[in-house]
Design goal:
The chain is α/β, with parallel strands linked by helices. It folds into two domains: 2-50; 55-292, 3-Layer(aba) Sandwich (Rossmann fold). It has helices at 29-33, 43-46, 66-69, 90-105, 118-126, 132-137, 165-184, 194-198, 204-221, 242-246; strands spanning 3-9, 14-20, 24-25, 58-59, 74-75, 79-84, 109-113, 141-145, 155-158, 161-164, 188-192, 224-230, 249-258, 261-271, 281-286, 289-292. The chain is globular, with a radius of gyration of 20 Å. α7 (165-184) runs parallel beside α9 (204-221). The protein is built from ten helices and 16 strands. Strands 8-7-11-12-6-13-14-15-16 form a nine-stranded mixed sheet, sandwiched between helices. Strands 1-2-3 form a three-stranded antiparallel sheet, with no helix packed on it. Strands 4-5 form a two-stranded antiparallel sheet. The protein binds adenosine-5'-triphosphate and magnesium ion (MG). Magnesium ion is lined by residues 90-91, 192.
Length: 299
């Protein structure tokens, strides 16, 4: 194994990177509080293996038109990033993915909401005929309202220990997700949006590591996961954000000026193990949810 290490110290962070097949990162407080945050860019996240498009390797989204772009659905047990600007339909699409899983594929789901409170999401989704309340009562769905994480004090007492808000919120969130997955046997997870969680960390390195930690935990559940992020620089010629490199697949939702009109456009930017249609395609939001038009061109 090839291994290179780098030690550094600055005002905000000090620690040790190991670069090679495994990458680890430790924060300084681990010795003081025994609160180790070790991040591994594991083979599971990075693995490159041949395409497998058999139906038992796919998790159909059930969203009209979308599975056609994905050769049958999302790759099973992987984490896919759904990235889009404000109002592009990230919450609707994520909810539709969970609802279809429950109603059409007998796959219970966990929804982690980091921005909107439960009441609002339930109310908005009822407009599409999706009764989250009923599904939750029937133990087909767990809705984790994680938005209060934002209002935690900077330091939190856990027994005799004091840990920072960021570390506490990530550890707590991962524990809550794992417990909920076990409780209902969830096969699908949505985290909407991860941006809120990740932006608690200062600097790209810390944000990237937080995201890797979350994605590692999601991979361990065995569920097929959709995590949403806010697209920071939209357009056809935009910069690629680091989270897009980490995810197994990336779906972009954008509202673009095409000719004289504004058009909703979906694009499968990448999907490991999947031959995809990566052309931008139009989609629309209606009273029944999102519909993708896989044969229509936008250019
Ligand atoms: N019944 C409907 N018919 C058509 N469009 C709708 C309908 N209901 C909601 N929308 C559109 O859906 C969009 C909001 O969807 P959603 O909340 O999923 O977006 P989002 O990407 O999650 O936004 P945010 O970044 O604010 O979280 C709005 O642009 C709204 O116009
Ligand atoms: Mg949303």
């Amino acid at each position: 194994m090839c291994l290179a290490t780098l030690d550094w110290k600055d005002s905000s962070l000090h620690g040790r990177y190991s670069l090679g097949v495994s990458i680890s990162f430790r924060l300084p407080y681990q010795n003081e509080y025994g609160f180790a945050l070790t991040l591994k860019a594991s083979r599971r996240l990075m693995a490159a293996s041949p395409a497998d498009t058999s139906s038992n390797s796919r998790t159909p989204t059930g969203i009209p038109g979308l599975d056609k772009l994905l050769t049958g659905g999302l790759p099973k047990n992987r984490t896919i990033l759904l990235s889009g600007g404000p109002g592009t339909g990230k919450t609707i699409m994520s909810s539709q993915y969970l609802i279809n899983g429950i109603l059409d594929y007998e796959e219970p789901g966990v929804y982690v909401s980091l921005d909107e409170n439960k009441e609002h999401v339930f109310e908005e989704m009822l407009d599409f005929g999706w009764d989250f309340n009923e599904l939750e009562s029937n133990k087909k769905l767990v809705f984790l309202e994680a938005s209060p994480i934002r209002y935690l004090p900077a330091e939190i007492k856990v027994g005799n220990l004091t840990v920072g808000r960021k570390e506490f919120s990530m550890a707590t969130l991962i524990e809550m997700i794992k417990t909920s997955v076990k409780e209902i046997g969830a096969k699908r997870i949505v985290v909407d949006p991860v941006t809120t969680l990740v932006f608690q960390y200062d600097g790209v390195v810390a944000q990237r590591n937080a995201l890797v930690e979350l994605m590692e935990a999601l991979a361990e559940t065995g569920a097929t996961c959709l995590i949403t992020t806010e697209l920071r620089r939209p357009g056809f010629e935009r910069n690629i954000d680091y989270e897009e490199y980490l995810a197994h697949g990336v779906i972009l939702l954008q509202q673009l000026q095409v000719g004289k009109s504004l058009l909703r456009v979906i694009q499968i930017e990448k999907m490991r193990k999947t031959p995809v249609d990566n052309q931008p395609r139009p989609y629309r939001i209606t009273d029944t949810g999102i519909e993708v038009f896989p044969r229509e061109s936008v250019l």
